[in-house]
Amino acid sequence: MNLLLINPNTTQRMTDALATAARAAAAPGTCITACQPSFGPASIEGFFDETIAAAGVAEQMRHAPAHDAVLIACFGDPGLDAAREATRAPVLGIAEAAFHAASFVSTGFSVVTTMTRTCVIAEHLLHKYGFERRCRGVHGTDIPVLALEHCDAQGQPLCLPQIEAAARAALAQDRSGAIVLGCAGMAGLCAALQVRLGVPVIDGVSAAVKLAEALVGLKLTTSAVGDYALPLPKPYAGWAQPLSW
Amino acid sequence: MNLLLINPNTTQRMTDALATAARAAAAPGTCITACQPSFGPASIEGFFDETIAAAGVAEQMRHAPAHDAVLIACFGDPGLDAAREATRAPVLGIAEAAFHAASFVSTGFSVVTTMTRTCVIAEHLLHKYGFERRCRGVHGTDIPVLALEHCDAQGQPLCLPQIEAAARAALAQDRSGAIVLGCAGMAGLCAALQVRLGVPVIDGVSAAVKLAEALVGLKLTTSAVGDYALPLPKPYAGWAQPLSW
Amino acid sequence: MNLLLINPNTTQRMTDALATAARAAAAPGTCITACQPSFGPASIEGFFDETIAAAGVAEQMRHAPAHDAVLIACFGDPGLDAAREATRAPVLGIAEAAFHAASFVSTGFSVVTTMTRTCVIAEHLLHKYGFERRCRGVHGTDIPVLALEHCDAQGQPLCLPQIEAAARAALAQDRSGAIVLGCAGMAGLCAALQVRLGVPVIDGVSAAVKLAEALVGLKLTTSAVGDYALPLPKPYAGWAQPLSW
Amino acid sequence: MNLLLINPNTTQRMTDALATAARAAAAPGTCITACQPSFGPASIEGFFDETIAAAGVAEQMRHAPAHDAVLIACFGDPGLDAAREATRAPVLGIAEAAFHAASFVSTGFSVVTTMTRTCVIAEHLLHKYGFERRCRGVHGTDIPVLALEHCDAQGQPLCLPQIEAAARAALAQDRSGAIVLGCAGMAGLCAALQVRLGVPVIDGVSAAVKLAEALVGLKLTTSAVGDYALPLPKPYAGWAQPLSW
Amino acid sequence: MNLLLINPNTTQRMTDALATAARAAAAPGTCITACQPSFGPASIEGFFDETIAAAGVAEQMRHAPAHDAVLIACFGDPGLDAAREATRAPVLGIAEAAFHAASFVSTGFSVVTTMTRTCVIAEHLLHKYGFERRCRGVHGTDIPVLALEHCDAQGQPLCLPQIEAAARAALAQDRSGAIVLGCAGMAGLCAALQVRLGVPVIDGVSAAVKLAEALVGLKLTTSAVGDYALPLPKPYAGWAQPLSW
Amino acid sequence: MNLLLINPNTTQRMTDALATAARAAAAPGTCITACQPSFGPASIEGFFDETIAAAGVAEQMRHAPAHDAVLIACFGDPGLDAAREATRAPVLGIAEAAFHAASFVSTGFSVVTTMTRTCVIAEHLLHKYGFERRCRGVHGTDIPVLALEHCDAQGQPLCLPQIEAAARAALAQDRSGAIVLGCAGMAGLCAALQVRLGVPVIDGVSAAVKLAEALVGLKLTTSAVGDYALPLPKPYAGWAQPLSW
Fold first, then answer.
1. Which superkingdom (chains A, B, C, D, E, F) (predicted)?
2. Overall number of domains in chain D
């Protein structure tokens, strides 16, 4: 099974890290190809970043044909609906995947994310997807996305204690039973946090890999009828010319 | 990986058929054990049937310890919350599984089920789970559950044309992109309907198998904290005595 | 008028106490018969307990024919929909009755209940019934159900101060105008709390008695059409054999 | 027990008819006093009529002190919140009472009312009260309120066949199990319709009487704390001067 | 363009102040006429006050014919639907106008109002209009409406510091980006608060003036079809006789 | 006052037409500058088109500094949240503007749009903005966006009769009081339709112009605090390099 992982930002180091995280979750026989847009922001920390990144995801959908499923590895799920029009393979966003996974193992979960200003993006998604009652709180830590990878001399992520503290506070305040990590860049912290917190901790990258494998196993394809039909053929101008159908 | 499939009704033939359907969906290495309660209705076609069947699911949770995940194979997801208290393994209902799967491949889906009187059960679940906007309609056909298996001389299910017609009407009326089959007993019709209708058709039994494999692969367990903590120890009376914690 | 009160748990002392509470609320001429299942948990403090208890309520519906209405005296309303299928007499759950009563006398109410882990059960009911905006908070005290009846030397319930404190905190924090007692076992505390708090305090047992009298007085019966039609006739296996229709 | 029934319109004949309907529902020992505002519309068939009528209800609350509960007998529940501020006795609107009663005996009900233009008033109430999911449809018949009382030579209401037809259509189209009559003036049709339709038919006037008796029996009062506290003392100008607190 | 501003209370000083605020916001060429009911409360601080005031708004709609739009200048929007039936000119409530304006410049706003007991009125409006997710909190200060105009020796409103403090607390607690002033009497504080708080502060009176100018500019009229059709002709009794259509 | 109108598609003829429509609605003294992205689809008829167009809107925000407000003239409001981060001037989408305007003049409105496959985009917006109850239906006509401008020999748009018919059907079926035109390209049909249909017909382009004038008149700016704070400075790659903050 071939999965295309699109990192919507343009930081190669993060694309590599996401590929590593995805491969760690993948079943034997699942092959992960990772890519990133040819343009756009180095990280996604607001609506403007995300809007450009969504177009980057759409651009990278040109790689979709050779794959059995596509993963969008940014917690705002940028370009998800566009990507679903562009292929019949299943497409998953990591926020969506994490929310679904969390709702199977808890009656209510909390999200711990990076910049507080992006909480609203998660809240919009929760509401759009129907998880507004399952999610009991979205909590910002104001750690910049690219600072998530900073480590101490022992290779331990510097942000771990702060994220653990935010998660503990969220569990208590929200009466939650699980934690969703609100950023693709937190994938590497998941196992450690799960041990420390004693509740399920869901990383969207791994969740998306496994759910994609499940959908492919079910031979389900994105519906070709109606709202996700292929884009209508028409001219595209400028750099986007090759994206036209 | 060992999955426990609980058929909440007491019709052995249906338990066998569900096991067959589940095994067809399972990955190599996934072993399905099927069981059914020692008591309760031959089929589930209303609230009363379902309430007894939910207790039957709770009873069968005594088999859970040896398994990596548990599937509840009736479209009303009877006993789901109880089962989640009774084990740390992930537990999935087939309605829940089908709704989640359908929401990955369409902006809106329709449910086609058996008795019209059970539509309200699906509607309650959709609302409880947060899919009330994703699902655009629940449609009864008034085919009794146990009549789903009646076949003609060629082994073709007699109900197929009626269910196909109901699905076509639902797709048009609801402007939907996918069909969810609203009864465990319809598992065998899924492939044929998908070919005929040209849209994704989701059978909850297969969906639950693949999603269970995904959750186990993610090493996620039902949250031991809070709402799904193990039942409190206390005496149980009557036939239920051995169910006490 | 004959009312059947079903205590869904199997603690005879609690059945007796509920009957006493119901009789205190009943009009002259209303006769209360109390019963409890032949099986199931001694108290209901989670989903598992509740699922078995719901089947117990279904079992006890064999007594319904001789009665004008049926009350289910546990705050999770276990088996309510099943019971409504099994008789044309009106059936009321005490949570439902309390929520309705509270919404007539306040713009917003708070629930004070026993174990925090059961708050989610009340929240599911509020959402199912449509009271999710009227109820401004559900608050656990972590008093075990069967400890509610412990009294000091003067016969005063030991839990009263703790419940009063939780109710005061809820009124302030939720900006509420009324308190709903979230457990059948709290019926005996209602009058004292109402005096101490100076706001309406609603006990579901009394509320269900009076609302049942009202529905019987209105000659309303549970709808025989559609979702609450009588269960379909079919074989039931095991101990449940006599429950078959 | 003394109940004050306020007819919010100024048609004496209708006040009398409402009193008769209420007395027919009342328990022995319940005494109904009926009144109507000194000003306002002869019938209520839109927002403008209703706004004046609500002030009329507020005016008539001067009679409340001598009563144990107050009923507002117009299906738009005009002045309900104001009336609740003006007394500690329970106050019920007939739409509210009917919705509550219907939700005890069906999973879903339909409303059949008079002018189509007033459907939106019922829809606003359903939404405000939380019954937007329980009610599956509001249907206008465009019968003027005051034409409801027109009878043929045998004393049969002329509108009965039209309302019966609208109710049958609603039950089928909405998959409903009960009918709520959407106008106080339909009280006299309730029994006949219930026989003809074979489902519970709820008249708000009777429902309000019985629910008021229930609340009084429960010794519940409108919460004096917060949102329904007594009006603040202040000067009122013009004809409203005597309404000042 | 002629705008009719109706102050729903009967305090002439407040009518004058509202006219001044409205004129300050009006475009050149927009002429504001202010009026107040001939009856009703001196200020509106609860449901009872508001119900009488709504009838006062209906009364003042007799002045509507000569105007291009009508503004209702009390934060509870009393009589709004009635006023819309009574004219084809656009009608705006100031709460409604403020909510709309705030939702254009922030993802979430908070309301700061006068008496805590009136928070529920704003909450009902938010819910009715669909802003229940955009508004993240409604906060009372318990400043009486008529005390808003009390000034110190320098002509500075005495309430400014308290309202500023409440707004700051709301912004932090609700994670909001804008403040809506929850009382017509706060119009004069808007500019000063906006400077001090550094976020958009919306006064409903100014917002209603500008939105009314916009709607008139668009040549939009209140729909004459259906729910807002002119009131049906019928007799009105008592002081309301001249209001009949 | 200077307004920047961004046509999110790349059809110059449509940009010109939108500018003309906007200028027709603008007050004297309001100057409209129209632009279109340097890249992207010729028309927007699905999620993929829209995602690229949203990035085009973000690109064109470089012109925002010289303007008092910004309008996004495509009915999917592409890039709206991104644009709001990129300037302190108010930003309006035409769908949003139309929904707000319609809700001031009717209790319920219907949307008539172009391709049926784009109905879901309007439905998502309605839900995101909180108009899901105000809007009673979204109706596709399957007229391609660029075919809207095709005229007969007399210069009459060929699509007018079909859109009129769809609007009539929508008004009847949805019991609506107003029509919202679901495509920027329909601006030119608005006046004719309003005459023919006899209900308010709202064109989002004009509505956005007038609402922008209103917000500028109110001196309201997009909140600089929190969710709409300026984008964080960071490198952007590829063609998007100049968009970096």
1. Bacteria
2. 2
Going through F25-143 in order, the beta strands assigned E by DSSP cover: 31-35, 40-41, 69-72, 91-93, 109-113, 135-140
What pLDDT, on a 0 to 100 scale, did the predictor assign at position F155? 82
Confidence of residue A145 (pLDDT cuts 50, 70, 90): confident
C211-230: pLDDT as tens digits: 999 999 999 999 999 899 99
F119–B133 C-beta distance less than 8 A: no
**Closest-approach residue (CA) in chain F for B133:** F127
Distance CA C193, CA E25 (A): 53
- Nearest one of D180, A131, B239 to C39, comparing CA atoms: B239
Note whether C191 and C228 are same-domain residues.
no
* Alpha-carbon span F202 to F187, nearest angstrom: 9
Same domain, B212 and B123: no
Report the pLDDT value the prediction gives residue C186, as an integer from 0 to 100: 94
What's the pLDDT score for residue D155? 82
Q: Give the list of residues 6+ apart from residue D165 with CB closer than 8 angstroms, or none.
A: none
- Alpha carbons B88 and C83: distance in angstroms, whole number: 31
Compute the distance between CA of residue C111 and CA of residue C176 in angstroms, rounded to an integer: 10
pLDDT of residue C126: 98
The minimum CA-CA distance between D117 and chain F, rounded to whole Å, is: 9
DSSP state of E157: B
- Give the full edge-to-edge strand order of the sheet including E109-113: E135-140, E109-113, E178-181, E201-203
pLDDT band at C64 (very low <50, low <70, confident <90, very high): very high
Residue B57 clears pLDDT 90, i.e. is over it? yes
Range of the domain at F106: 95-204
Which amino acid type is present at position D237?
A: A
Average pLDDT over residues F147-161: 90
Inform me whether the C-beta atom of residue A91 falls under 8 Å from chain F C-beta atoms: no
Q: Give the residue on A whose Cα is nearest the Cα of B206.
A: A218
Averaged pLDDT, B133-153: 93
Whether residues A87 and A101 fall in one domain: no
Q: Are residues B133 and B107 in the same domain?
A: yes
ipTM of the complex: 0.96
Give, as one character, the DSSP assignment of residue E118.
G
The per-residue pLDDT of chain C, averaged, comes to: 96
d(CA F41, CA F21): 21
Residues E199 and E216 in one domain: no
User: For residues C63 and C87, what is the distance between their CA atoms, to the nearest angstrom?
Assistant: 10
Q: Note whether E159 and E237 are same-domain residues.
A: no
E40 with E55, same domain: the answer is yes
Residue D215 belongs to a domain with what CATH number? 3.40.50.12500
| Predicted pLDDT of residue E156 | 87
F231 and A128 within 8 Å at the Cβ level: the answer is no
Quick one: pLDDT at residue C242? 96
- Which one of F111, F120, F135 would you mutate to disrupt binding with B, by most B Cβ within 10 Å of its Cβ? F120
Question: What is the three-state SS of chain A?
Answer: CEEEEECCCCCHHHHHHHHHHHHHHCCCCCEEEEECCCCEECCCCCHHHHHHHHHHHHHHHHHHHHCCEEEECCCCCCCHHHHHHCCCCCEEEHHHHHHHHHHHHCCCEEEEECCHHHHHHHHHHHHHHCCCCCEEEEEECCCCHHHHHCECCCCCECCHHHHHHHHHHHHHHHCCCEEEECCHHHHHHHHHHHHHHCCCEEEHHHHHHHHHHHHHHCCCCCCCCHHHCCCCCCCEEHHHHHHCC
Q: Which subunits have 3 or more CB–CB pairs within 8 Å of chain C?
A: A, B, D, E
Q: Which run of H or of E encompasses E120?
A: helix E119-129
> What is the model's pLDDT at position E109?
98
Q: Do residue E89 and residue E104 come from a single domain?
A: no
CA distance F164 to chain D (A): 23
Q: How many percent of chain E have pLDDT more than 90? A: 93
CA–CA distance, D34 with F32 (Å, rounded to integer):
63
For residues F194-223, give the mean pLDDT: 97
